[in-house]
Amino acid sequence: MDQIGLLLDGFAAALTPSHLLWALVGVTIGTAVGVLPGIGPALTVAMLLPITFRLEPSSALILFAGIYYGGMYGGSTTSILLNTPGESASMIAALEGNKMARAGRAAAALATAALGSFVAATIGTIGLTFLAPLVADFATGFGPPEYVALMAVAFTTVSALLGPNLLKGIASLLVGITIGLIGIDSQTGQPRLVFGAEALLDGIDVVIVVVALFALGETFTRLISRYGQSSVQPVHGRTALSRDDLRRSWPAWLRGTALGFPIGSLPAGGAEVPTFLSYTVEKKLSRHPEDFGRGAIEGVAGPEAANNAAAAGVLVPLLTIGLPTSATAAVILTAFQSYGLQPGPELFTESGPLVWTLIASLYVGNVMLLVLNLPLVKVWARMLTIPPHTIYAGVLVFAALGAFAAGGTTADLLVLCGLGLLGLLMREAGIPPAPAIVGLILGPIAEQQLRRALVLSEGDPSILVSGPITIALWAVVALSLLLSALVPVVRRQRRAREGADLT
Asked: If 31 and its partner were Cys, which of 74, 96, 295, 357 is the partner (CB 3.0–4.6 Å)?
């Protein structure tokens, strides 16, 4: 129970006026940048690093942690309202949340996202407080074979569930993996898929791809649409969660948290995998499966909880073993090092007061985010009354600014436009963009871990099924592929029986 005493000391420091002010500034900025397409917490922290060097380490880290948590909150807003994720981990919220917005239930979607984020982030921070060493020990036991199997689980579940059929889901996944392979091979040093363009030697930033496929793809689709008015309907009815909404949401919050925190704690786990898995689980367990694809509130509540729980989980390997598993965590690691601090097992002993102040500030910032977001539900919902041409003109501006800030060259804007046209073609062909982002993020990681596994086994592929964890994960892969093939058959048979009964 030493953690409780240390945490109380952390609260004593975090509740000072200066630290409270920096926490408030951080969560406010984080929410704002989460809302803006392409301007994510990683980019914001990176831009603020040079101007925070004069701050005390605790104040700067509290600011950055607030931006991180706030970005997870705010990323769902544009996903729900505009079908344009502010963060890659928020793209699942667009699937059902935007359908709810189009049906006039934007406020309910935003409310379940805000409450789910608060519940999950609080539970995740409790897990960070008490379970960090245990989870970190388990994570360090993962070797390359386990990572390859985990990536395969993510690939198959995403491809099977996020497309109209398995083939289109796999096509989108392969698009993302191909984009992820662009650049210099880290092992051989040879350029891949650059076609002589020097600007592509460093690869394509994930921010640019996310903004292009979602923001530009959506905008271009609206541009060529023959409908002059937005298909999003004004908000009507209740502007908060009804009793039925709450009954359907709270189990999804808990299940999303249960998936998000442990997977987010794994090296290379990140927030994308648990959000997709949460959507899978909610779709399988829902008592209202007919609502999925038309605005199921569980499809917003579960993934958003998983997203925020994973954000807390990402801090486990960062603080305990110094391993960043997301872009924002990598920038925060840079912030630690700029103050002469090296995250790892010794951090809790050498800089214990700072670490526990940081953890306590996460609790405080989480409460601030809830107070800041819930009253603004109606304000965000009023965005739906803005003329669509104004909204998407703003989306284009912020998308271009985010892409230019990510790379800083004209070539990045050209790549943005090219990928935006690709996003338009994918939408016209009915190919979902979400699996492409997963392939982009996880494809290079899977390739790297597969190479390491084969090096360890001297080319023997049996190492990929050499342990109980890998066997269990590959069984999940086989099961997901089998279900994706059987479910359409069962649905066709059910429809045929229902049609026969009607006649």
From this structure: 74
Helix (H/G/I), strand (E/B), else coil: 1: coil
pLDDT per position as a tens digit, 372-400: 877 776 665 565 566 667 767 777 787 77
Q: Comparing C-alpha atoms, which of 195, 222, 193 is closest to residue 82? A: 222
Cα–Cα nearest to 466, from 246, 3, 144, 172: 144
Residues 418 and 180: their CA atoms lie apart, in Å, by 15
Residues 325 and 311: their CA atoms lie apart, in Å, by 10
**72 closest CA partner among 343, 324, 264, 354:** 264
Model confidence pTM above 0.70: no
User: How is residue 297 written in tokens?
Assistant: 């509130």
**Long-range contact set of residues 418-421: C-beta below 8 Å, sequence gap at least 24:** 418/212, 419/179, 419/204, 419/208, 419/209, 419/212, 419/213, 419/216, 420/212, 420/213, 420/215, 420/216, 420/217, 420/219, 420/220, 421/216, 421/220
Higher-pLDDT residue of 69, 233: 69
Of 317, 301, 298, 316, the C-alpha closest to 119 is: 301
The tens digit of pLDDT for each residue in 299-351 reads 888 888 888 888 888 888 777 766 666 667 766 776 777 777 777 666 777 77
Q: In sequence order, which residues have a C-beta less than 8 Å from that of residue 4 and are 6 or more positions away? A: none
Compute the distance between CA of residue 391 and CA of residue 393 in angstroms, rounded to an integer.
Answer: 5
DSSP characters over 26-61 = HHHHHHHHHHSTT--HHHHHHHHGGGGTTS-HHHHH
Q: Confirm if 262 and 135 have CB atoms less than 8 A apart.
A: yes
Give the Cα separation of 342 and 354 in Å (integer).
Answer: 12
How is residue 363 written in tokens? 């609790």
